[in-house]
Amino acid sequence: MVDTYTPIPFLHRAPKPLPSLQQERSNVTWMIHICRQVICDMDQYGVCVVDNLLGEERGANILKEVYALERSGAFQDGQVVKQQQKLVKVGDTGTDYNNHQNGSHVSPIHPVRGDKIAWVDGREPICKNIAVLIALIDAIVMGANKIPNNGKLGSYTIKERTKAMVSCYPGSGTQYVKHVDNPNQDGRCITSIYYLNKDWDTKTNGGLLRIFPDGYANTVADIEPLFDRMLFFWSDRRNPHEVQPAFKTRYAITLWYFDAKEKDEARVKLRES
After folding, report:
1. What Å distances lie between residue 28 and 32, 79, 221, 250, CA to CA?
2. Burial of 2 (C-beta count, 10 Å sphere; 0-12/13-18/19+)
3. CA distances from 138 to 77, 242, 251, 271 (A)
4. How many whole angstroms separate alpha carbon 230 and alpha carbon 40?
5. Tens digits of per-residue pLDDT, 126-163?
6. C-alpha radius of gyration, the chain, whole number
7. Residue 59, helix vs strand vs coil
8. This model's pTM is above 0.85
């Protein structure tokens, strides 16, 4: 079957990696630029990509910690989530950059989901650089949520998020079939993913994230899981997506941010069910 999808022009590159923590004025200018970029693309496409987020050195330090988590045995088989997860207040990592989910078991070769995952909050001794990443993503999401003239993001009140899900697709054709992160109004409004894959060639290695944005007929957002790439997209039915089969080990770190009103309504429904 011929692929007839047309890509959407959402891709952007950060003007430069995050400045050093001592460069306060540069940090503020950089953050405003990234927040505006997120607002603009989320309004227009429902998807935003920021490349070159942290730079080579900082990204490599995060990847080293992911390798350490893997060696420690922290990764477990990915799950198709059906139960409620303990949430974290946004910004709660113990780091300033200036409960495990339950669900039906999925084996590594399950056709639905083949990744290995570990949940971290940034307070773990081997996750100091991951904590900086979490704090930075918190700052971007909260900045975009509170800055004036922030488009669709202004309709949400974001106070909580999940812990960080560190994921590994171990190659051998592992994938995650087409799905929606929040199909049932559980409160999740923004999915954010940071990729850690150096020298990634999608033609050879696979592992493409393909998003099917609602309202764009025969149009997709194809995201290569490239090193130091940051992705944001709406978590609800506006963005069905899939991870295509990966033939090389593929790493990412994901955070989900919650709208307070929808999350409160979901909690009430859970208690009444």
Report:
1. 6, 38, 29, 32
2. exposed
3. 26, 25, 20, 29
4. 15
5. 999 999 999 999 999 999 999 999 999 999 999 999 99
6. 18
7. helix
8. yes
